[in-house]
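User: Predict the structure for this protein chain, please.
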Amino acid sequence: MLFIRNLGLGLLDLLLPPRCHICKKPVKTAETLHICSDCQTTLPFITSPACSVCGIPMAGAGEDHPCSRCMITPPPYRAARAALRYEGNCRDLIHAFKYQYKSHLRRPLGLLMARHLRPFAETIRPDLLVPVPLHVSRLRQRGFNQSVLLGEILSREWQIPLLRQGLLRIRATVPQVELNRDQRLENLRGAFTVKESPAIANRRIMLVDDVFTTGSTLRECADILISGGCREVSAVTIAHAP
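Assistant: Here is the predicted structure, written as C-alpha cells:
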C-alpha cells in the first residue's frame, strides 16, 4: 500500500508539479515545506543573540540575555521564542495565512516552527500545548483559528498533547494591530478564561500563537493560566516583530 501511495504521489507531482509558496516556481521534488531552496535562504530565522526571556532578536554578536523590558517588567511566562523575524517573506506568508484565508500555509509555517524551535521545546519540556484562542465572532469570520492549526502540527512533530480549548476568549476585542502597547494590555483585560482547570492543574503549559508583537496577548494568557493552577507557562510563535 505504501508503494502504491508513493507511486501515486510521484505521478501527481509529475502531472501537477508543486510550486514554491514564495516565488511560485515549480519545486523539483515535493519537499514537505514546498518552499524552494533559494527562498528558504531568504527566510529571516532568529539566531543569537536574542532576549533569553521574550525572545526578541538583538543586534550584534554574543549570547542570549534578558532585554531591558523584560528586566524592568518581567513577564509571567518563563520564556518565549519565535522561529523568524516578522519581515519580508515571513510576513507575507503569515498575512496570506491569516487574512487571505490560505489555511494550507499552516503546514510550511508549522514545520518551520517545529524544526527551528525543537531545541527550545526540548529544554522547556512542556506537558501540554495550548493555542491562543479567538473569540467566536472572529472564528466565524475567519473560519479557523491559526493558532490551533499550528498547534496541531507542533503536537504531531514534538509528540506533545494539544489542549485545543484550554483557554477561551470570552470577550471580543479591538484588533491588536490597531493599538499601541499600553492600549493592547488594557484591551485584553478580562478577555480570556480557563476552560479546563483540572487539565492544566500543576502542568507546564506552552502557548502557541502566530506573531509576538508586544507580548501583551501572551502576558494576559499566561496570567490567566497561572491563576488557573498551572505550574509554568512558556510560549512559541512563528515570528517576532521588531
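Residues 1-12 have pLDDT under 50 and may be disordered.
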